[in-house]
Amino acid sequence: MLTSTLAALATSLALTPLAVAVDTAPQTQTIHFHMDDLDSQAGWDAVEDRIRTVTDRVCRPHGLRGLVAQRVRQECFNATFADAMGQLNRQYAQANSRSVAVVIAPH
Predict the structure, then answer these.
(1) Which of 14, 65, 67, 72 has the maximum number of C-beta atoms within 10 A of its C-beta?
(2) Cβ distance 22 to 61 under 8 Å?
(3) For the whole model, what pTM was predicted?
């Protein structure tokens, strides 16, 4: 069985001015998995957990502490997670037994 990797397009980064001042080179990570992983609810949950974990990692505001860091991180997480899940849902709808890649870039 030939598997192919779908390259997910990264959307433009919507960084707040504060986030730009903190981290001018945002980290981007890609999660690869096979469409067979999505054959069950447990599989979906596992993939979503992986996306959530990586999103949390790429949205850590380096150099900030306290409430400002929490706000920046939460805004980044919400936008980035929504984008990643949107990529997953779009690619799942288009794919038939193919691998999927989700690009996770902070927003």
Answers:
(1) 72
(2) yes
(3) 0.63
Contact 107, 15 (CB under 8 A): yes
Helix (H, G, I), strand (E, B) or coil at 104: strand
In 10 A of CB 105, how many CB atoms? Answer: 21
Average pLDDT score over residue span 52-72: 85
Q: Which stretch of 6-15, 29-38, 80-89 has the lowest confidence by average pLDDT?
A: 6-15
Mean pLDDT of the chain: 73
For residue 83, the SS3 value is: helix
Distance CA 59, CA 31 (A): 15
The first and second tokens of residue 70, run together, are 């929490």
Rounded to whole angstroms, the Cα distance separating 66 from 41 reads 37
User: What pLDDT score does 55 carry?
Assistant: 93
Nearest to 34 by CA among 96, 93, 84: 96
Angle, to 10 degrees, between the axis of helix 41-58 and the axis of helix 66-94? 140
SS3 17: helix
